[in-house]
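Memo to structure team: turn this sequence into structure tokens by end of day. - J.P.
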Amino acid sequence: MARPDVLVIGAGVIGLSAAHAALARGLSVHVVDREGPAAGASAGNAGGFAFAEVHPLASPETLLASPRWLLDPLGPLAIPPRYAPRIAPWMARFACASLPHRVAAATDAQAGLMRLARATLEPFMSTTGTLAMLRKTGQLQVHETAHAFAADCRGREEAARFGFGWRSLIGPDAISEIQPGLSPRFTHATFTEDWWAIADPKLYVLALAAALEAKGATVGVGEVRRIAVGGNGVTAHLADGRALPAGQIVLAAGAHSHRIARSLGDRIPLETERGYNTTLPPGAFGLRCHITFAAHGFVASPLSTGIRIGGAVELGGLNLPPNYARSRAMLAKAKDFLPELRTEGGTEWMGFRPSLPDSLPIIGRCAKAPDVLYAFGHGHLGLTQSSATATLVAELLMRQNPSIDLAPFDPGRFRWVL
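Reply from structure team:
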């Protein structure tokens, strides 16, 4: 294989989107992934383009709620006891990122990336032949108390400040006009128009891979262990002994990215949010739109391939075995909240969301190896921010000025904090 202009490490939604954007600018592209396209978090996410979610997970609200959540081993947030010592430094950084001035800065940065994502998504999908998979069905966030509803409205007002629309719903009858069949325990809701969805995230990512190969790029399987810098470009070294040289490298390997970045001297505090879900067969419920059960930390998503019940956060790294009791707990709650939901015949899944303490991804050049670009750490928002990240990566590859200020996403931003 001839040396490509760009080697993309990672065949999830971020890596493949970046590969398309590079190819569209006339660069030759090869993609390599440890398992192949759509093998990780890109396959099992909830399928939402959550443009209005500009408020970072790292916030005073999350810190206040965390002790209560941690008391429930199957609740919205869990840390396996044997993993707690290892994640302590990350949690300290998370607490620092929750200071009000840092939350405000992260919100502004996230909003800029979200606006770019909304503006670029449909053109990107048109060029990749995937536009037919896009759905503009909105998101319903439901609440059992007026207090929780008021807090959600404050968050939506913040999103509205950046141009993302929403409306409030009060009473079960108003909610049922959007989504019939919800338990009457949900008395308040917000409906966000600026929440789009994909028919099925795995099928979308596989379609991106197929379109990429149809346009002349190559997609291969191999586990990259390290990146080396040479006099004529950069080289990825694989576990099987192969070496893949390239003019530039884009590191977009999701939850595994920080291990590879370490070979270039960057110690990036990337942690793994282990997400769980159960996908029920088509017809399990007449779900019209994405529903978020905010107080319970999970969602219900309508896909072309079924109904997906999932979410929650388990900070447990890459190596611990899955705890599918979390999937079953969410499914049992979903049955209570959607009484007509048929829960038999589901498929359980666990995947790794790559998350950074300040809730912002890393997008930028490696300081010690300028021909290596980083594009990872999107947490829950990889699908949402994929077209925006691809645009920014392509601009960097071409040595153009990026569409937004990339300082908040700089790979070196964690060097001088906890």
